[in-house]
């Protein structure tokens, strides 16, 4: 009887460990936030998306209102085309703007939506025209170094 009890506890411990590993894998892959809510696609174009990834959150006022569905390169405009899946319960004006922001110390990137003032709302397949690309740290450092180098040249 004691052997069966021990086998039961070991089996239960292994099951809990497997569930914990599954949870961590889903969290690491940003897949733990599946939703069966109705959504509508909206397209945006950015000059530089930095480290933005599919399934990244789309937030407005700090609230998650959707997810990044797809990222492609548009070879006609030479920009990144990002498709957003916004939840149907959230409606945004047609003149809303989108920008790529960074949250936290680890630098997870997400898209921030700022509502405009238009009376008509975005519909499925519409495009957000006003966008702001990601701030890339390497570009900021190079601009700083070039400005310091230019200051040094002008002093001579």
Automatic annotation (TrEMBL):
<keyword id="KW-1133">Transmembrane helix</keyword>
<dbReference type="GO" id="GO:0005543">
    <property type="term" value="F:phospholipid binding"/>
</dbReference>
<dbReference type="GO" id="GO:0005548">
    <property type="term" value="F:phospholipid transporter activity"/>
</dbReference>
<dbReference type="InterPro" id="IPR030970">
    <property type="entry name" value="ABC_MlaD"/>
</dbReference>
<keyword id="KW-0472">Membrane</keyword>
<protein>
    <submittedName>
        <fullName>Phospholipid/cholesterol/gamma-HCH transport system substrate-binding protein</fullName>
    </submittedName>
</protein>
<keyword id="KW-0812">Transmembrane</keyword>
<dbReference type="InterPro" id="IPR003399">
    <property type="entry name" value="Mce/MlaD"/>
</dbReference>
<feature type="transmembrane region" description="Helical">
    <location>
        <begin position="6"/>
        <end position="26"/>
    </location>
</feature>
<dbReference type="InterPro" id="IPR052336">
    <property type="entry name" value="MlaD_Phospholipid_Transporter"/>
</dbReference>
<feature type="domain" description="Mce/MlaD">
    <location>
        <begin position="39"/>
        <end position="116"/>
    </location>
</feature>
<dbReference type="Pfam" id="PF02470">
    <property type="entry name" value="MlaD"/>
</dbReference>
